[in-house]
Structure formats: C-alpha cells, structure tokens
Specification:
The chain is α+β, with helices and mostly antiparallel strands. Helices cover 17% and strands 40% of the residues. The chain has one helix and nine strands, in the order H-E-E-E-E-E-E-E-E-E. The protein has one helix at residues 3-24, and strands at residues 45-50, 58-64, 70-75, 79-84, 90-98, 101-104, 108-110, 114-119, 126-130. The N and C termini lie far apart (49 Å).
Length: 131
C-alpha cells in the first residue's frame, strides 16, 4: 500500500472518531446531557422513592440547614425519581409536600458527587453514598 493511501485511511478514521465523540453527548435539540455511564446525572443527586402504600403525588424540596429551600420537582405515587442537585455540600433535610401534608426526612450531610437516597415508605432515614 502506498503512503498516500494510508494517510487517507487515517484521516477518514480520525474524522469518524471525532464525529462519533461529538454526537455522543448531545441530547435532542442540541442540549448537552450530563449523564454518566450508568445513565444517571453526574454530580450530586437526590433519589426519592414515593412507594409507601396510599401515597400521593408530592413536591420534593431540599432544605438546607442555612439558606433557602430548593424545589427539586414532583414525584407521583409509586414512583422513584432521581433529581440532580447543584447545591453546596452541607447539612440538609428532604421535604415532601402533598395533599396529605408534609413529610420531612432526617437531617443528613451531603457531599460533592454523592447520592442521597430517601425511601419515604421506610420513614425519615436518608442514606448517603459516594458516586
């Protein structure tokens, strides 16, 4: 094979690789996703399981020890949802507000790039782990 042909093949392979990498992180509409290899958002996340018998749709908030509450979103009865959270590390509670009233988690410490998991059916306990 001639050197010129090898260069052409190398150029095509490089172009294909660059195209594949550029399109891999784009979501529909051109927005960049922030998901890791497991399909979960990168950074700190809050996972809420609204699976208690008789539960209803609730709105979930992060409640810092100092500062302003951050709304995360709504979660329907029987669902599990993962919310990205960009707040600072520190002490928090999770508050769920629905037609039946308000439920608060226990106080827990959140770190960068961690996951806080709250199963509302088991009470107030929040499990925090690394990512």
């Amino acid at each position: 094979m001639r050197v010129g042909n090898l260069r052409s093949i190398a150029a095509v392979v490089t172009l294909l690789a660059a195209t594949a990498c550029a399109s891999g992180g784009a979501a529909p509409g051109g927005a960049q996703t922030q998901e890791g290899a497991a399909g979960q958002p990168e950074g700190t996340v809050v996972q809420v399981l609204n699976t208690a018998p008789g539960s209803s749709t609730v709105t979930v908030y992060m409640v810092p020890e100092i500062g302003v509450d951050t709304p995360l979103g709504a979660i329907e009865s029987g669902q599990t949802r993962i919310f990205p959270f960009s707040g600072s590390p520190g002490w928090y509670q999770i508050r769920a507000v629905g037609p039946a009233g308000t439920m608060m988690s226990e106080r827990f410490q959140l770190y960068r790039n961690s996951t806080a998991r709250w199963d509302m059916s088991t009470g107030r306990r929040v499990v925090v782990g690394g990512r």
